[in-house]
Each structure stands twice: as C-alpha cells, then as structure tokens.
Amino acid sequence: xxxxxxxxxxxxxxxxxxxxxxxxxxxxxxxxxxxxxxxxxxxxxxxxxxxxxxxxxxxxxxxxxxxxxxxxxxxxxxxxxxxxxxxxxxxxxxxxxxxxxxxxxxxxxxxxxxxxxxxxxxxxxx
Length: 126
Hints:
This protein is α+β, with helices and mostly antiparallel strands. It has one domain: Archaeosine Trna-guanine Transglycosylase, Chain: A, domain 4. Helix content is 21%, strand content 37%. Strands 2-5-4-3-1-6 form a 6-stranded mixed beta sheet. The longest helix is centred in the middle third of the chain and has 10 residues, at 76-85. The model has no long low-confidence stretch (mean pLDDT 94).
C-alpha cells in the first residue's frame, strides 16, 4: 500500500479531520488509498498553534488511512480559497506553485509498531 510520511502536527490534523489538503512541491499521478505516517520531525511553531486542541501527536507511527482524490496545482484563485476555508489550518502564506493533495475518507488507525519514515510516496505491507 502507498504511504507518505508527514511531520507533526500536520499528520494528526489530517487523521482528526481538520486538514483536507496536504501540500507538496511535487505532483503525483497516484490516486487511491494512502496511509499517513508520522515522522520523527515536528513543526515546533505549528505545535504551539494547535496546543489548545489537546490532541496526541505520536511519532514514527501509521495513524490514518485516507483516499488521495486529486493533486491540484495551486494558482492564485485556489490559494485564496484555502485561506478563506481555514486560515488556522492552511495559514495565509502564498502557496502558489505548490501542489495540494486532496484527501478524503479519513479513517483513523491504531498501529503501535514504530516504523522508520521515508521521503516521497513509498510502499509498505501491513
């Protein structure tokens, strides 16, 4: 199955349904089921922003299965849409030129095994 490693708190925000888009500098033609893996790295500033949500932020774990629905090149119009949709989650910074991976059908998983992350989309057998 395809899997992607994402820093915390972003991975947990996806698993909890707060974040429907993941941003990457590269596009993918892949569509279908995708596991969300939490890396060891964290975004310290973002962790402070979301502290009031009282969520757990595990590291090196698979925490969700989602559907990768689309991969959208962010233009000016889509960038504005993201800011209007959720400033708190998506921020106000300019994301033009990045790709928004549209995620759907979030299913939280509880897999206790620690797994080392990788760059890009990778494959794993569960």
